[in-house]
Specification:
By secondary structure, the protein is mainly beta. The chain is 4% helix and 59% strand. The protein contains one helix and 20 strands. Belongs to the arrestin family.
């Protein structure tokens, strides 16, 4: 029977918040006495990115990158460098380690991931090291009240487009998007006001509101390159009204569970931001018109009294 090693975490869910203590037990089972140089436990966090660049159907380059986010080693046996006999049977070793407060959260994306792994390494003279691993999940909190005060204030963006070439230019399609604040947490609704004035004479085929996660992946091999991926998190489709007067839409977008916004450089090669986006498809060619407002997603909501003041401000 081969040597077996089981890694048990005290937290059965294997989910930890930044700043919490990871505790567990390593159970090593051997069928006969074995001499070990060391038994080490490594708790590591690593971010990796990986994507291919194509020209037509031909792959031309592969971009990669990695970044160590956390690394801690614990000597379970053999800390003094001397060989030690591990007796036949099952031996248990306890371990614990505090996670830093500023770790990036676990993440799995289209072109990269942030993983946290516990590895037990059995080192024996003249033998290849044996390794045993398990993964765990790290969550990070983000208190919106500690972010810049600008996220408490209403935000508005307006755009005007025409859809025919000179000299037969159409009238304008004017679209305005506004929200009472730009910081929200999962479970909250984002109150959205969209105003549309269509004097272009072109039919509006589609109006959508979307919360979009924008992830920037940065490689270091063969060179530094940034690849951006946009993913719709949630959204709503609005009725199309072709009216030269201003049509006002009021909608609320429910924020689902999703990774928090990246607000520091705890992971440089994977950065996550969010946008509230309004998208319209216009005219016979279904030309796309987009407006976007940056949104910060956290875990602790803005103080209710301050949020109410921003909502009253936009409604007035």
């Amino acid at each position: 029977m081969p040597t077996t090693c089981k890694i048990w975490l005290r937290n059965d869910t294997k989910v930890y918040n930044c700043g919490e203590k990871v505790e567990g037990t390593v159970e090593l089972t051997v069928t006969e006495t074995k001499r070990m140089n060391a038994i080490r436990l490594i708790i590591a966090g690593v971010a990796t990115v990986d994507w291919d660049q194509f020209r037509g159907a031909k792959k031309t380059l592969r971009f990669k990158g990695s970044e160590a986010c956390f690394d801690s080693e614990i000597d379970l046996l053999g800390a003094n460098g001397e060989e030690v006999d591990v007796q036949a049977g099952t031996t248990s070793y306890s371990f614990d380690c505090y996670l830093p407060d500023s770790l990036p959260p676990s993440f799995e994306g289209e072109y990269g991931r942030i993983q946290y792994i516990i590895t037990v390494v059995l080192q024996r003279s003249g033998r290849v090291d044996k390794t045993f691993t398990i993964e765990f999940t790290v969550r990070r909190g983000l208190d919106l009240n500690a972010e810049p005060s600008s996220i408490r204030r209403p935000a508005r963006i307006e755009s005007s487009n025409t859809f025919r070439c000179w000299p037969c230019r159409s009238g304008p399609l004017v679209v305005a998007l506004q929200v009472p604040a730009t910081g929200f947490v999962a479970g909250q609704r984002i109150p959205v006001v969209l105003e549309v004035s269509n004097r272009s004479g072109c039919k509006i085929h589609l109006i959508q509101l979307k919360l979009v996660m924008v992830v920037a992946y940065t490689s270091d091999t063969p060179r530094v390159k940034v690849k951006t991926n946009r993913q719709d998190v949630t959204g709503a489709e609005l009725d199309q009204v072709d009216d030269p007067d201003v049509v006002r839409y009021e909608e609320s977008i429910l924020v689902p569970q999703t990774p928090v916004t990246s607000t520091d450089d705890s992971c440089k090669i994977i950065q996550i931001v969010y946008e509230l986006e309004a998208e319209l498809e216009v005219g016979a060619l279904h030309q796309v018109m987009k407006l976007a407002i940056p949104i910060v997603i956290g875990t602790v909501p803005l103080d209710s009294d301050r949020r109410e003041s921003t909502i009253m401000e936009i409604e007035s």
